[in-house]
Amino acid sequence: MWGSARSLRRSVGWIAQVLLVFVPGWAEAREDRMVRTPAEYEQALDRSRPGDRIVLANGEWRDFQVLFNAEGEDGRPITLTAQTPGAVILTGQSNLRMAGRHLVVSNLVFRDGWSPTGEVVSFRQNRQNRAVNSRVTGIVIDGFSKPDRSESDNWVAMYGFGNRFDHSHLIGKTNAGTTLVVVRDEEQGLENRHLIDHNWFGPRPPLGSNGGETLRIGTSHDSESSSFTTVTANWFERTNGEVEIISNKSGQNTYRGNVFFEAEGALTLRHGDGAVVEDNVFIGNGRPNTGGIRVINRNNTVRNNYMEGLRGEGFASALTILYGVPNSPLNRYVQVQNAVIENNTLVDVAEVALGEGMDTERSAPPIDSRFARNLIVNRDGSDPVRMTGDLGGIAFEGNVVSAHATILPGAESRTVALSRGRGGLMVPQGVDGIGARRDLAFVGRNAVGVSWYPKDAERAALDSGQTIAVAAEEDALTLAARTAAPGDRLVLAAGDHVVNAVLAVETPLTVEGPSDGEARILFSRPTLFEIGRHGSLKLANLSISGAEAPDAAGNAVVRAGSDAFGYRLELSGVRVSDLTVNRAFDLIAAEPGSLASRIVLSAVTAEGLTGSVLRASAETRDLGTYNAEVVEVTGSTFRRIAGPAIDLYRGGTDESTFGPRLTVSGTTFQGVGQGGAVPAAIRLIGVQRAELTANRFTESGPVRFERRVGAPVLIWRDNQADADPFLFSNVEAQ
Amino acid sequence: MWGSARSLRRSVGWIAQVLLVFVPGWAEAREDRMVRTPAEYEQALDRSRPGDRIVLANGEWRDFQVLFNAEGEDGRPITLTAQTPGAVILTGQSNLRMAGRHLVVSNLVFRDGWSPTGEVVSFRQNRQNRAVNSRVTGIVIDGFSKPDRSESDNWVAMYGFGNRFDHSHLIGKTNAGTTLVVVRDEEQGLENRHLIDHNWFGPRPPLGSNGGETLRIGTSHDSESSSFTTVTANWFERTNGEVEIISNKSGQNTYRGNVFFEAEGALTLRHGDGAVVEDNVFIGNGRPNTGGIRVINRNNTVRNNYMEGLRGEGFASALTILYGVPNSPLNRYVQVQNAVIENNTLVDVAEVALGEGMDTERSAPPIDSRFARNLIVNRDGSDPVRMTGDLGGIAFEGNVVSAHATILPGAESRTVALSRGRGGLMVPQGVDGIGARRDLAFVGRNAVGVSWYPKDAERAALDSGQTIAVAAEEDALTLAARTAAPGDRLVLAAGDHVVNAVLAVETPLTVEGPSDGEARILFSRPTLFEIGRHGSLKLANLSISGAEAPDAAGNAVVRAGSDAFGYRLELSGVRVSDLTVNRAFDLIAAEPGSLASRIVLSAVTAEGLTGSVLRASAETRDLGTYNAEVVEVTGSTFRRIAGPAIDLYRGGTDESTFGPRLTVSGTTFQGVGQGGAVPAAIRLIGVQRAELTANRFTESGPVRFERRVGAPVLIWRDNQADADPFLFSNVEAQ
To answer: Cβ of B83 under 8 Å from any chain A Cβ?
Structure first.
């Protein structure tokens, strides 16, 4: 069309212009207006008529808050697009608001900045003016996150009705708030009938608190009405923001033919009735917390879905049917009624949780429901089914479970042979009519998102860069760290390395000792390494002394700044001593707001600290936030440590996160955490899973483990202690 | 000299160059090398010989870390200076290090950035290489503070010996660490014999923790040795960083002829013996916490000083003699012995504290000391002298106190007539030989610092800008706030103002309602106003509703971000309601790291909050930091508030700050702070002074007041309560 319109103009010349002005109804007339500045954009917008296109010139558009309000016509939309897909980049404080009807926006990229408002792409201008019958297609939003992780926004907010959001990339949201949300209210009409399809919801790291849903439709408030929105043929790839990947909160929505690839959490039918969840494929590849579908409420149908290799449990099981709250308020859990769960195939999943969540509040069992012709095959012969409470309200019919003894009522227990089908999914032999249909296919990764923007861009990894030798001279390491490229490895010469600056770690950085001799780092600032927004740090085979640190309370060898997010920190073969000049001198200190994805200490010797080896307990507001997702300590020795050697805190009572998780093995605690108001060698408050194996505690405080929410796990195995080893507190938080 | 050397070169041409190279000893030969880039600077430095000057070209030098290492000769220093004083600005990540001997640096400005190391101007290159017999003169360091307030640095660090720092401006340090420090160690020799003179130590706001000294000489570790440093003819103007303006921590230093103008805290003889403090002038002008001289240790002389209008008490009294610790460790308090305190004049001071600080640890009284011929005149007839413990070790001789009945042993009690002398100081009549000498003069403000940089640059104040009308339209206020200039006043039209962005307050901003009708603000983001680094905010005569705020825990109407420092927040005639959508919804929330200089609430009505009216309790690490210096609440009404209406916290046991301070009067608390783990209508932990007058408490939790350090004051007067009104806990912190 564009091509033909241009030819037309070229041949007709000024007459065409006149025609455009005086015969606006002429079907073939269309203007393309290339604009180079926000002012030109405004002018072009003023002149646009149905069928016209505004074309943003290639380049960076910085701090451009686009307001696209116009009135197109059915079949003749007004379009806002890029000169070249992928070559128009909105950066800085930018966003897009749309209002009107029959609008199309396409081929824009949001990157290197964040929206100054609560939305990046919004299908409304303000409360009064929304976009309807409009489409956003081929949009990329890449890491366009507010730097303060606790400050929430929604990247895409769909208002109005009859809108479509498709073929877009949404990657790397790190702050709170949904990636895509459908906002409903009575004024606009509650029947949205939106279409959300062929998008690539790319990796999103765990938020470390509630508010990390990738997709939400509605809120509890209006959840008794129906949205009629369809979510189809999308990929959700490592969308690990929180326990709900999708939070369905309205009636009559359809989730069909989507792929959930290594995604932590579950498609959760949180509020609202009558959802259809079918033909979806969940591939966990054995990664922790990968889940399937969680059923709550009435009249939901879950059929012909395929799950494989999902390791999630509890609320993030492959299939979960929840207990409800009798006469539930809108914001709690409506009893499951009339659920139909049939013909799903589950291969090698960790758990199918039927009757999950039963407690004094959630006391209403599922009723009037059917669980039929599902196929559950674990190739190791285990039975993932876990049943709780009264499940008499579920009719179990014709299910097949591969375990030798299955607890599923009436299920046939037998060995089922599997083979990979053409699409890569497992196809069972000899159980016709059981499990998902044999020709179930799924949308390809290449068919979602846009073709012109990469799906596999990765940050530099630790040790992926150059190796750089650092002489044992004062501030040689300071200079080397300042000029290191992402992934570089600084190898220290034997001898003393005095550092007189805080080394800002803004990209992955490795600092290693020599293969012969010992490198020792001394530092004169309150902090040796400070991890920033995109930093990760590995320290290996070296020694660190706090003897030259300033005489101030609260020093730390490694500090995670308040914007450090999703970072890795590894210490291996590191000897730390003399952190004693003043009180509260830590080896690792996490500031409020920071969140580590993984902290690993192996063969670390820490002796003489007035603080903690790891202090990740800064989030004391009890809003469900915490400072470390996974902590692993092996083969280490901690001696003469005033505080708890490991101090992890997660307050709050929401059930939306998986962390913190801790393993400690083969580690010696001697003279640790004996003083203070609450003596503790290890203090774990609100930690979801702690596994302590083959450790030795002498002359140390106890291990404290306090539940705050959920069903936390403490595994205590083969440890030795010269005193009463641990305290378990099951007190509910206020 | 410069002019003549230039003339010489001009006339002699290349022959002069040759002479310079081959006859370096020639007394008149001198090179001036103008440099325009860091690389040119390096080259010039390499070529510099005794007597030469390197001249930085006018302009901004960004991210320039100057290393000035060279060897001058006595009388023929090597100089680094500016093309034009005040026209060479070092910005960004810049600093200066010097090493060698006979160096001079002059006329540079550090601004708009901060040092990446622990020092801005350092008299050393590294541990091995220091500057000696060198001078820094005419330097300006203006607001060159690290943005993270808790990250400390020293602006000027004097190492070596025989150095001089003079005629410089040091203004507006906001992060931790001394403004100027003398660093001593045995390797360099402990006798520094530095001269610090004619500097203008300009305003420094309270740091809100230990570490805010303006000047420190030495540390406790080496305090038994002598520095022989002289501090003379400097101005300390509103240097309010902490309780010690000067922290003397070495022996045999002299403080002579300095002016302390409206400066909070005291010149403190913290460690080391044999200091002479004479001819200094302290002018308080009645400002709170303005102090004089605090005496600890042995052989200190305090004579001929003049104090007027000082309001400090306790450790910040006009004169304090401290109790000591028997056999004190180096870092505690050595018993006062052989102190000579004579011929000082004190006019209208709040307190003279003799025997201050006596407790179970500090149990050693002053001995072998003399307190003689001092004149203490309070024109209101009051007696500021406060005596504690056993003062038999002080010989009191010939003192005159104006009070009708004085408690000072042997002092003459009489009325003394005063008149202003020529220099502006009060001169007494008829008490010859008593008080400071009559011709005591002090250095003029114009004679300190540099002449080419202003001393009175002030930030824009609230209400100092334009008045801007804002229509009652969605996001009209958003736009107006974004484009407001510092000090502007936004006057809202009557009606609803919906705000869909977090309004960043980076400069002083006023938002007011109309004189007729009511303006109501509704907001859809988790925060309405977020105060940043240089922000202040005033809200007047308007209404704010939280009804449209997002369904998330931890929302706030006003949030002080972690970099908000020294800000003012005033709410007057503001009605706040419906902060209830989720829990922990506050009216004012201070983030960790933030510090308000003053928060004033007058005629505020707050009804229906799930959080607090003011939550300034984020610093839970107990390092002596806190979030609000002064809080004043008058004539307000707080109803149905879940948390404590006012929640202030200051942990830690150091005695280095004056805040937090609170006054609440004429305010009604109804249904406030009844729930939670620890019910409280007002929760004050570690607050130094709280005055509650004529308030009314009904159906509310108690007022909790817990001591953490010092001798906090709680004044409870004319309040009404329908239950046991308050709890006082005197438990020492751990």
So the answer is: no
Same domain, B325 and B428: yes
pLDDT greater at residue B733 or residue A318: A318
In a domain, B448, yes or no: no
B 509-568: CB under 8 A from A:
524-527, 550-554, 561-562
What was the ipTM of the complex prediction? 0.71
Q: Percentage of residues in chain B with pLDDT exceeding 70?
A: 95
Instruction: Quote the CA–CA distance of A652 and B567 in Å, as a whole number.
Output: 31
Half-sphere exposure of A192 (CA within 13 A, CB side): 35
A152/B contact by beta carbon, under 8 A: yes
In terms of domains, do B411 and B553 share one?
A: no
Q: Is the pLDDT of residue A23 over 50?
A: no
Tokens of A725: 């080893």
DSSP secondary-structure letter at A174? Answer: -
**pLDDT, position B208:** 85
Q: How many domains does chain A have?
A: 3
* Residue whose C-alpha is closest to residue A453's, from A156, A168, A124: A168
Enter the tokens of residue A703.
Answer: 């291990």
H-helix or E-strand spanning residue B419: strand B418-420
Is some CB atom of chain B closer than 8 A to the CB atom of A495? Answer: no
Query: Which residue, among B240, B331, B339, has the nearest Cα to B294 in the 3D structure?
Result: B339
* Domain assignment of residue B184, yes or no: no
Residue with tokens 């004391």: A620
pLDDT at B660 over 80: yes
Look up the CATH number of the domain holding residue A667: 2.160.20
More confident residue, A673 or A622: A673
- pLDDT interval class at A459 (50, 70, 90): low
A166 in a structural domain: no
Query: A201 in a domain, yes or no?
Result: no
Quick one: DSSP state of residue A475?
T
Ordered DSSP codes for A317-372: SSEEEE-B-TT--TTS-PPPBS-EEES-EEES-S-EEEEET-SSS--B--BSEEEE
Q: What 8-state DSSP symbol labels residue A250?
A: S
Dist. CA B269–CA B296, nearest whole Å: 6
Tokens of A338: 């009339």
Cβ contacts (< 8 Å) between A620 and chain B: which residues? 620
SS3 B329: coil
Q: Which residues of B touch A593 (CB under 8 A)?
A: 562
Question: Which backbone phi and psi does B316 adopt, to 5 degrees?
Answer: -115, 30
In contact, B341 and B302? CB cutoff 8 Å: yes
Q: Is B45 helix (H, G, I), strand (E, B) or coil?
A: helix
What digits encode the pLDDT tens for the residues A394-452? 999 999 999 888 889 989 998 999 999 877 899 999 999 999 999 998 999 999 999 99
Say what the pLDDT of residue A423 is: 79
Residue B619 phi, psi (nearest 5): -90, 75
Length of chain A: 734
In whole angstroms, give the CA distance from residue A104 to residue A614. Answer: 51
- My answer on whether A429 and A494 are in the same domain is no
Name the band, by pLDDT with cuts 50, 70 and 90, for residue B6.
Answer: very low
- In angstroms, the CA B80 to CA B69 distance is 11
| Contact present, A537 and A505 (Cβ < 8 Å) | yes
Q: Indicate whether A68 pLDDT > 80.
A: yes
CB < 8 Å to B592, chain A: 562, 591-592, 618
| Cis, peptide link before residue A514, omega less than 30° from 0 | no
Chain centroid to Cα B265, Å, comes to: 9
Q: Which residue range forms the structural domain that includes residue B310?
A: 293-441
pLDDT of B28 above 70: no
* Rounded-to-5 percentages of helix, strand, coil across chain B: 5, 45, 50
Q: Rounded to a whole number, what is the distance in Å from the CA of A513 to chain B's nearest CA?
A: 22
Query: Residue B75: pLDDT band by 50, 70, 90 thresholds?
Result: very high
